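Internal ticket - ligand job 463, manganese (II) ion:
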Amino acid sequence: MSTVDKLKNELCYKPKHASNVIDASEVMKADEFCEGYKKFLDNAKTEREATAIICEEAIKRGYVEFEPDKKYEAGQKVYFVNRGKAIILAVIGKKSLTEGVKIAAAHIDSPRLDLKPNPLYESDELALFKTHYYGGIKKYQWVAIPLAIHGVVIKADGTKVTVKIGEDEGEPKFVISDILPHLGAEQGKRTLSEGISGEELNVIVGSRPFKNDEGSELVKLNILNILYEKYGIKEADFLSAELEVVPAFKADDIGFDRGLIGSYGHDDRVCAYPAAMAAFDIENPDYTVLTVLTDKEETGSDGNTGLQSSYLKYFIFDLAKANGIEGYRVLSKSECLSADVNSAYDPTFNSVFEKNNTSYLNKGVVITKYTGARGKGGTSDASAEYMGKIRKMLDEDGVVWQIGELGKVDAGGGGTVAKYIANLDIDVVDLGVPVLSMHAPYEVVSKLDVYMAYRAFYKFFKQ
Ligand code: MN
Ligand code: MN
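stdout (structure tokens):
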């Protein structure tokens, strides 16, 4: 090695492609890990489904339901489900809670289309559902793709019906129509963000009348009849329902080399799954470790299942109280990895990225020191000290990682749950997986990055 190369090696910072850092057996482990992740993506498209699956897996691994007034011993594993849409997994540590807990927090809601409270209508002998989009979407991406409907309906008598249709082989799917290009001259003059409007996101759900009779709205009646026969629900039952329209795609490998995964909902299942797997694999940790899989991040974390609510704080306070400790003392000593995605550098749309401070596919897990917009508005900016601690932890364990901002300073912005956790007086930094086409119906991540996220969370819990 020349003196120049030696010095470069010694002094310069240059993130590397993960496969240049890890060996072939590690690559195989990553590929294997991602087979489990792909199954999770296909089966957990909504926050409710993700909560149910993680809860079921936790129980299989010896987790028991959390009892607020019970004092738990080191090594015990408990779970707490918040209204079926969020879950906390905890493994009790050997150290006293006065030394704080280690938290990994990811979200399990994703951008989608919710049905409006009164969704069903007929127009020109087609039956359609009105939708209200959830989270930050580019509306034009949601037309002319196969869609599925997931959720729950609470009937007049209070009973709950679970709906999941459009996923399995042989099931019908749903679709939102778009104007054919031949007649798209006027639409073509709209700006991209207005290309499809919110009120144009109407899902086609039927086309055949109840009978071959004259009569108004017989297509709608036919759909209501089918829904009654299949689910026992009537039109008024939509008023007490949460039905979510999601892409009907399955997760698939992308590229001849199969290095990437394309799927709906990587943001943020790509952090939720590795964090949950790390929680499942950790045994007898020193510190008590918490994995929080939360809801409502995509709409600003408001609501009682989002992290602006007190449910995480109350859970920690209950743990503390059973040990005769003030809850705030636990919070103040705690540390958190806010496990969320960042934007991966896109060579096709490179103008929105600043190359030296953006994350890249395959360069490992991405640490985002701060999110927000403009002059660091609306962010928790992780301290140099905490950055230093996490950096050292990852380096010591050989976890491949990189640094990233969302994009160019004035290009836009975004946030995560980090600031709400920081507001509890907890040290926190964002750590997650770079995503291409974030918030699109079909997002892309790298398998090596997913596995590095798992390793990062495991090490964080293990330390
Ligand atoms: Mn996210
Ligand atoms: Mn998001």
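Auto-summary: The longest helix spans residues 24-43. The CA atoms of residues 21 and 400 lie 8 Å apart.
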